[in-house]
Automatic annotation (TrEMBL), chain B:
Residues 3-103 form the STAS domain. PANTHER family: ANTI-SIGMA FACTOR ANTAGONIST, ANTI-SIGMA FACTOR ANTAGONIST TM_1081-RELATED-RELATED. It comes from Streptomyces cirratus. InterPro entries: Anti-sigma_ant, STAS_dom, STAS_dom_sf. This is Anti-sigma factor antagonist. Belongs to the anti-sigma-factor antagonist family. Gene3D superfamilies: STAS domain (3.30.750.24). Pfam families: STAS (PF01740).
Length: 151, 103
């Protein structure tokens, strides 16, 4: 478990495609603070980006809404909590493995973003509480990149 | 970070060069260029991605779109993608129909 020591950082943005850059910058800052390696940083960014994109495009269906991103970082890694008030949606149930047997011309790409998100993180959980979808994503610092030599 | 997209023809190859980040915000620019590239009718479409530091599933959707737009005999190549980007392409199984190469 990651028990990051820092106070949580919070970002609250409109659920618009234009806000993805701000969300990415927020996540990258936390990853930097935690000292995550390149690969772990890429993975947490990809996961948050995919889930946020899904909330914007499918959760709120392009309508008005907001996304709250809370993050904590520490030596153990980064934990991000995404919250929205769109209709209930559990990404684990919406996760489709890629249909690699289907020719690309007939391939359905929807759901692949969630698959990428959930396979990029070390821990994931979903809850519906007080009318909010809450996704908690953790990427650990240890074991995600080549380890430093042991003393 | 924005995406820069350039389109050129080299012999019988249409070259799309991407630089920047390919996500839900920037993928529409790539999409438009694919439409143009498909109209060129060359036998190969080469997508140079060495300058792409990040790609989300929106980029995969663009690659599938490219396959759907070009004629059956056209080869699509993705060249120079960094490791996490090529891993994303492989995760989606697109490496079965798109040639991935380092250079």
């Amino acid at each position: 478990m990651v028990e990051p020591a820092s106070k949580p950082s919070v970002l609250d943005v409109p659920a618009k495609i234009g806000a993805l850059g701000e969300i990415a910058a927020f996540v990258l800052r936390l990853a930097g603070r935690a000292g995550l390696g390149k690969q772990a940083t890429y993975r947490i960014r990809l996961a948050v980006d995919e889930l946020a994109t899904n909330i914007i495009m499918h959760g709120y269906r392009g309508g008005c809404g907001r996304i709250t991103v809370r993050g904590r970082s520490g030596p153990g890694g980064v934990r991000i909590v995404l919250e929205d008030t769109a209709p209930p949606f559990d990404p684990v149930e919406g996760c489709l493995p890629p249909a690699t047997g289907v020719p690309p011309q007939r391939r359905r790409v929807g759901g692949l973003g969630i698959h990428l998100a959930l396979t990029s993180v070390d821990e994931y959980s979903y809850a519906r509480m007080d009318g909010r979808n809450t996704s908690t994503l953790t990427v650990k610092a240890e074991g995600t990149d080549p380890c430093p030599p042991r003393p | 970070m924005p995406l820069s997209v350039t389109l050129s023809i080299e012999g019988d190859t249409t070259v799309i060069e991407l630089e920047g980040e390919l996500d839900a915000k920037t993928a529409p620019d790539f999409h438009q260029t694919i439409e143009k590239a498909a109209g060129h009718g060359t036998s190969t479409v080469e997508i140079r991605m060495a300058g792409v530091g990040y790609m989300a599933s929106a980029g995969l959707r663009s690659l599938v779109f490219a396959q759907q737009k070009v004629a059956d005999h056209v080869t699509i190549k993705v060249v120079g993608a960094i490791e996490p980007v090529s891993r994303t392409i492989r995760t989606a199984g697109l490496d079965r129909s798109i040639q991935l190469s380092d250079d």
